[in-house]
Amino acid sequence: MAEEADDRKPFLSKKIDKFFTGLADAWNFVRRFWQEVFLPPYEFKEVIHQCYRIGVESLPLISLTGFIVGIVFTNQSRPSLSEFGATSWLPSLISIAVVRAMGPLVTALIAAGKVGSSIGAEIGSMKVTEQIDAMEVSATNPFKFLVVTRVLATTLMIPILVMYTDFVALIGSFLNVNANELVSLSTFFVQIFESISFLDIWSSVLKSLLFGFTIGIVGCYKGYHSSKGTEGVGRAANSAVVISMFLIFIEELLVLQVVNAIRGM
Amino acid sequence: MSDKVVEIRDLYKSFGDLDVLKGVDLDLHREENLVVLGRSGTGKSVLIKIMVGLLKQDRGQMEVLGQEVSNLTPKELNALRLKIGFSFQNSALYDSMTVRENMEFPLVRNIKNLTKKEITYKIEELLDAVGLPQTINQMPSELSGGQKKRIGVARTLILNPEIMLYDEPTAGLDPITCVEINNLINEVRERYKTTSIVITHDLACAKMTGDRMAVLLDGQFRAMGTFEEVFPHAEDRRIKSFYDYNFIES
Question: Fewest CB atoms less than 10 Å from the CB: which of A31, A42, B9, B234?
């Protein structure tokens, strides 16, 4: 009866229903995370294992991307600055751009693609092959073991990866600046630290924590709610990436507004 | 003390419009092997999933070891689950862990203060019991279907359950491996004194492992008794055809 009534609903109405039901599910999932994260038993070993997987295994890709971003951004900014004879400002410009926005954003987008999809696919395949049920019947809380540990690991590791990306991007930028403007390493880094404030670093860390949490929770949510066999696993991995990236941009925008408001005080 | 281990009364379960269980009644006695038979989608697996609290009934009573499952708190439910071993249809081995880690997983989380030596001894003892001691460091992806089933059974036995639930233990296996799995089910009962429910649509498996058969049709048990009582002279055409399709007679 209920399904018949549901079939008669207009297409748009069904879509809206589905959207709000999904939103409520997601809210309950996040709420459950905050309820479970402080309650024993604590899966420290699994958190460390996940930190290793997320952190160490992302390093090669993050290193390469960060380095290239540093070089390319420096190269692209030079012509505009040289028009005003201000190429000496390159280190300041690069450091502000990298620390405030590009470092966190590039790292989070790469992690959303690499880590988010892998979490979605892993938990999704565990779900469809009844491994999550197996955990539950052996009196282990699968939410705590699979979700809490992964979300904690992404939340802890993304800020560290962001700092690393910042560093690698600045090294890339230095090599470019050094080759073209003959600026020494010490001068380059003195200029960098003069340009960035405590607020820049603080907001970068805050953003990274938020991005890390988003990547972890979205990947876990999508995996935990996947169905329809292998097709569902693929869909979970894909939507984990798409939704994470979308939310990362929204969060970037919101944090930017807050930080600008604080800066204006 | 009653020797009833499971008592099901007037159990209903539906998914949306689909009524799967429509008033199921069942008693399971200590150290009995009960085989639940029925075609795919008749709710056999649903029944045992309600038993371990993975699903909740719409109405009716599901009493396991004297406790109504639907009324238990999460803590009580976990305590009950430790007394029930669930062997999944696809074995459900954790594929990111080795066989040793798969078996360690429930043990270290539920029994505290075990030394490494005790854990290894327990794992090796059970792997010996299922005839696969050499697989201890292998990944599930390196095992055959039959080996995975055996390891799945060994993993459930590690917590010394009183009740064993086997969901389609012989599904997708060759006839020889099926016989090996059936023998394993019987050995488990003899050695560990477990009470079992075997969910299957394989009559050869049912005949080898079951003391009693229960045929689930249209959401209810339509026949119950020994293999000889239920089959081969069944009056219900559907039960008869179930028998005929399994044992093709000339």
Answer: A31
Q: What is the pLDDT of residues B158-185, one digit of tens each?
A: 999 999 999 999 988 888 889 999 999 9
CATH code of residue B124: 3.40.50.300
Q: How many domains in chain A?
A: 1
Cβ distance of B159 and A138 shorter than 8 Å = yes
Which residues from chain B sit within 8 angstroms of residue A229, using beta carbons?
A: none
Q: Which tens digits make up the pLDDT trace of A98-155? A: 999 999 999 999 999 999 999 999 999 999 999 999 999 999 999 999 999 999 999 9
**Helix, strand, coil shares, percent, chain B, to 5:** 40, 25, 35
Q: Which residues of B touch A125 (CB under 8 A)?
A: 95
Point out the residue among A3, A125, A140 whose CB comes nearest to the CB of B106: A140
For residue A137 the two structure tokens come to 């019947």
Residue B192 one-letter amino acid: Y
Residue A35 lies in a domain: no
Interface predicted TM-score (ipTM): 0.91
| Pairing status of strand B220-225 against strand B212-217 | antiparallel
* Strand locations in chain B (E): 4-15, 18-29, 33-37, 59-64, 67-68, 84-87, 163-167, 195-200, 212-217, 220-225
Q: What are the structure tokens assigned to A205, written together?
A: 């860390």
Residue A16 lies in a domain: no
Secondary-structure breakdown of chain A: helix, strand, coil percentages, each rounded to the nearest 5: 90, 0, 10
Domain total for chain B? 1
In chain B, how many H helices and how many E strands? 9, 10
Domain ranges, residue B214: 4-246
pTM: 0.89
CA pair distance A206, A221, nearest whole angstrom: 22
| Backbone φ and ψ of B25, nearest 5° | -125, 135
